[in-house]
Amino acid sequence: MPLTIEYEGTLYRPPSEGNSLILQATIGCSWNECSFCAMYREKRFRVRRIEELAAEIEAARDQLGATVRKVFLADGDALIAKASYLHAILDLLRTAFPRLRRVSCYASPQALQIRTVDEMSALREAGLTQYYLGVESGHDTVLERMQKGVDAAEMIRVANKAKDAGIKLSTMILLGAGGAELSLEHARESGRVISAIDPRFVSTLVVTPVAGTPLGDDAERGDFVPMDPIALTHELREFVAHTDVSGAVFRSNHASNYLPLGGTLPKDKARIVETLDAVLNAPDAAPFTPEQFRGL
Is residue 4 part of a domain? Predict the structure, then answer.
């Protein structure tokens, strides 16, 4: 019998968690103010009862047994739950799945503000080893428009708290978030911030106005105009060129991207920049993903 877990509302997870067991430790997002994000607007944020999680973990153990090696704690802000609650979940997971290698979750800047380095270090030792952090931009004006709730300096500070705790960080930048007006400044400042954070993983997504969000409303009024693939390629090129990290896996293969690319920075930086320059020099031959195959 296939495993059935009753998820509340639409479920979201990073692309790299496609083979993970996904548990909704929290419902929704405690911040839920980002102007571009529609993922949790229909949900009231709450932390689920540990008894509910225990029952789901037991069911997963009975049906999947030792095959579970990765677990993703949804929804958008599991890290903001009390440390004692997260430890209880991790205890249950370690007992149920002896081959468990990684537990991960999204981390909002607001959650990183309240978590201490010692708390995150203890949670890492218990198994919660990777966070997905939506940096979105390194430009303060863009961050304000995106309603992230922090500026670039604070984003760097809280991300480095996680780094100090030994957490692997997977960071995301939103291409096109500054519009044509701030495109290059957004790209270069985002490179600066990612360099200061020095994460293990870096990915880019293309911002897409969604109905029912403030950004969607802006686009409907004509106050926000999505950028075309060539302008986004130029922005991506500037971002990569201005990113200096010690060793990070780079991906632009999210479904929203027009130009899937990948590599390791800094080893593949020159190659990626050269590839983007070639696209900009011959845009008519560019292998852009057709619009109908792109997604949010």
Answer: no
Helices H / strands E in the chain, number of each: 10, 10
Question: Which residues constitute the domain of residue 154?
Answer: 15-287
Q: What is the C-alpha separation between 96 and 91, in angstroms, rounded?
A: 9
Instruction: Judge whether 82 lies within some domain.
Output: yes
Domain harbouring 225, CATH code: 3.20.20.70
Q: What is the pTM of this model?
A: 0.94
DSSP 180: T
Tell me the β-bridge partners of 169: 131
Output phi, psi for 43, to 5 deg: -110, 145
Q: How far apart are CA 200 and CA 250, in angstroms?
A: 9
Please count the structural domains in the chain.
1
pLDDT tens digit sequence for 126-173: 999 999 999 999 999 999 999 999 999 999 999 999 999 999 999 999
